[in-house]
Amino acid sequence: MTADAIKEAKKRMEKVGEDLRAELATLRTGRASVTLLDHIKVDYYGTPTPVKQVATLSVPDPATIVIQSWDPGVLPAIEKAIRSSDLGLNPANDGKIVRVPIPPLTQDRRKEMVKHLHKVLEAHRTAVRNIRRDTNETFKKLLKDHKISEDDEKHALAEVQKMTDHWIAQVDEIGKNKEKEIMSV
Fold it and tell me: Which domains does the chain have, with CATH numbers?
């Protein structure tokens, strides 16, 4: 019984790690990356569709993203979606492709992004702790219902704490690397 709860907690904590990596991939670092546009949705004939599903994205140089749509009629919608996003980018549409120049980040903008990064990291640390709390409550209930012994509960709690420590350290490490990436000019 405790093994199932531990396995479930591990799976949920791994999901937190995956979610963190996906969220940080969309954070701008001053270098062009197609992952910056992952959360941008284009109005494709009335349906909000991710940019990568209506076009080919490429990075010909470190300061530009090039978007080549399969349907040239969608280019204005792609341009509008990027312009109205929270990325602060100014795309240029030449009728065949959309070029998105990635301006260098100012020091103030870098500091804002680091603040945002810290909020994201704290939210993911909290998620890991909430998983630990839920799992520990499961063990306490099993003990109360006399389905496991006190020793089993003690070992299970220690195991979950070890996993929690591991994942919080992972979140911190990922965050430290991303902060370094954001602050490097």
Answer: 2-26+106-183 (1.10.132.20), 34-101 (3.30.1360.40)
